[in-house]
Amino acid sequence: QEEFLELLELLVSRARTYVSSLAAMEEFHLSLSQCVVLRYHWIDPFVRSLKERLASFDRFFCVADQVKVYTNQNKTRTFIGLEVSAGHFQLLELVSEVDRVLEEFDLPTFYKDPSFHISLAWCVGDLSGRLEGQCLRELQDIVDRFEDSALLLRVQWEQIRCKSGNKYFSFPLR
């Protein structure tokens, strides 16, 4: 949406006054699993299992409106994201089913206490110290004051997508 990109530009522009190397994300998603490596012959059974486990889920809304700073596990990248403030329970239920599929293939499950979020921008290295505190407060203020942000940051979940290599699989919610 045009308004979302406008908000993204405001946030990234302000954050760059603290970390000039920040790059805006070009695609947006909310993760329900860690990145895992699927062997080629596992892809079809993995996708079938996901489809079965996710078939009973209804569509729902979540709200991602809390600005937060994240780093990846090995602290080689820092991200600015919008954390989910409503819809957490439904996302946990989805993760539980995705985790069961991962366990079938002896793959690592999701984090025990996940912070569901949509990454907006990133940079190389652990620069979280520069982005937290004053910068984070300014970014949250931009979100809170942005016209129609309450509607803009309300996301309807209509499908779950799985990416394997360059292929996407879609699982519609009821």
Automatic annotation (TrEMBL):
Q: Which GO terms describe its cellular component?
A: nucleus
| Keyword Membrane recorded | no
Gene3D superfamilies on file: Cyclic phosphodiesterase
- UniProt KW keywords: Hydrolase, Lyase, Nuclease, Nucleus
Give any Pfam family that matches: HVSL
Q: Which InterPro entries match?
A: Cyclic_Pdiesterase (IPR009097), Usb1 (IPR027521)
Q: Which reaction does it catalyse?
A: a 3'-end uridylyl-uridine-RNA = a 3'-end 2',3'-cyclophospho-uridine-RNA + uridine; a 3'-end uridylyl-adenosine-RNA = a 3'-end 2',3'-cyclophospho-uridine-RNA + adenosine
Query: What processes in GO biological process is this protein linked to?
Result: U6 snRNA 3'-end processing
Which GO-annotated molecular functions does the record name? 3'-5'-RNA exonuclease activity; lyase activity
This chain's function reads: 3'-5' RNA exonuclease that trims the 3' end of oligo(U) and oligo(A) tracts of the pre-U6 small nuclear RNA (snRNA) molecule, leading to the formation of a mature U6 snRNA 3' end-terminated with a 2',3'-cyclic phosphate. Participates in the U6 snRNA 3' end processing that prevents U6 snRNA degradation. In addition also removes uridines from the 3' end of U6atac snRNA and possibly the vault RNA VTRNA1-1.
What is the designated name of this protein? U6 snRNA phosphodiesterase 1
Species of origin = Thalassarche chlororhynchos (Atlantic yellow-nosed albatross)
